[in-house]
Structure prediction request, 268 residues.
Amino acid sequence: MTLILHLSDPHFGTERAAVAEALVKLVHAQSPQLAILSGDITQRARTQEFQAARTFMARLNIPSLLAIPGNHDIPLFNLAARLFWPYARYTHAFGSELEPVYETPELLAIGVNTTRRYRHVDGEVSSAQMQRVAARLRQASPTQMRLVVTHQPLHVTHEEDQSNLLHGHVQAASCWTTAGADLILGGHIHRPFAVALPTNSKSVISHTWVVQAGTALSSRIRYEVGNSVNLIRCGLPGPERRCVIERWDYAETAGHFVQMAQHDLSFG
Prediction:
């Protein structure tokens, strides 16, 4: 069994110290093998914010990390840096691979860089990216859980979040579900949920789920949702690919993370 910590949008520079300590305790108690960090690691892509993020991830002591940048991880006010070396500080902290892949006999996780230097907030996925991910998904073995990680979401559950959908989300959803994606992970909107990706036919049940993480650590809390992370348990025994998705929220009065929801999923 592989345990994944899915966290997003910590926005270092706005992190809450008490929540950070509570997340360290949760991670040490659960001992995940992989951390998936789906963007907006920093608030303003400053060097000290990336350093704080690296220091924190080291404290978690998770053996493997798959990280992708978010729109906040590109300099906003330094126009020269944004135009000519937008990922310099990100790659110094998290490595040169902007679209990493993590693979074991139980799991295939594919990162997709949806940020663009010419877009301030919105994300975009190109046809080339869609096809590259689809080709890699088709190579997965029958026993591997297949995860795709973006920053901006491919699906939202509230009308007010429609403007934050990834540009190209309709085509990407069709392409990746056809290629066999099990889960599509994201962040950006600070609203956690896990739902089956809708299909164009009412008679067809989607086998692909969209799993969004809330903001892990930031004080930039939106709507009614507080700080939140996901734990995903993959490689469970059985004839089909199975996983359990757990949503854990920070409880203000208790001062620690508590499990708020659970989805037990099977994929043929």
